[in-house]
Amino acid sequence: MSSPHIAVYGATGHTGRLVAAELRARGKDVILSGRDAGALKALSEELGGAPVHQATLDDPAALRELAGQANVLIHCAGPFTHTGEPVATAAVEAGCHYVDHALEQHHTKWIFDTLQEPARRKGITMVTAMSFYGGTGDLLAGAVAEGLTGIDRVITAYAVSGWRLTTGAKQTAELLFADTRRITYTDGEQHVGYVEPRNAVFPFPPPLGPRTMIAPVPFSEVVTVPRHVRTRHVEAQLTAHTFEEEQAFTSEHVDAATRAGSRFTVATQVITADGGSAGQVSGHDLWRLSALASVEAAVRLAGGHGRPGVYSPAEAFAPGPFLRDLERLGLFTLTLPGKAES
After folding, report:
1. Comparing C-alpha atoms, which of 71, 75, 96 is closest to residue 85?
2. Half-sphere exposure of 209 toward its Cβ, with a 13 Å CA cutoff?
3. Does this model's pTM top 0.90?
4. Structural domain range at position 123
5. Residue 143 belongs to a domain
6. Total number of domains in the chain
């Protein structure tokens, strides 16, 4: 291929459309893929004629053919509990770099446990959990923890308002909160089992201030952060009011402008015996943040900036500079401790 091709699986969903449009705007060669041939054709026409490849999840040959046409495959179609394995497997078999938007703990653990050695043998880079939830926390944890020792705990707190769930996100949320076999990371070890949720208070900096949180929430940081931060505890928390908003679970068909109205602050505390450090991002439109983070990852991989294996966002890319690049795209305002600013 004369130039790198980037395939987008789940291209007709909300995140997939944002990813495909951004890649086209950057002049990249894009292959649109998913299950609905009619919707793919319509999106192709909307984007000026990008090639289309229909592939259903129960057709491994079609998925391998898709990955075989691309240098990088961005997987946008959740819930990854159901969609992750066939698409990621196809990428490995075809020798195609891979990025996904998963936040599900068990998919993230599966991809590390199962595909690490196959990815290395194929010479491809796989980046999992490049999502707003989970991925942002992983990047912040990596940036804030840089240079610190004796870390006792890493806590990432998500303050989100105006979140309007897509059909896939609603299904993912329902699966996550019904899961009685949650992964936690305490006392320096990973555990799997029922977790009694609790209310906690997280001290967000002004103007937010302290907020009541659901803790822990079953995001992917418990799998990814201990891979690159030596700590005894990892936990993710989410503002209790996020799911109390009336339209959160009844907004699957709102327009893109309404969906872009979410506002967020994600704050990470890295706590040590001497006090520790903290950092945060604040912005709007968490969907666009997810989409452009995966585009930034895919463009880097297409340009040869990767190494064989499976990685979290903060393992794959230097987290402080990667967050700064996202900030320059206007996705959020970033605050990091001095050592992580470069």
Report:
1. 75
2. 1
3. yes
4. 5-131+290-320
5. yes
6. 2
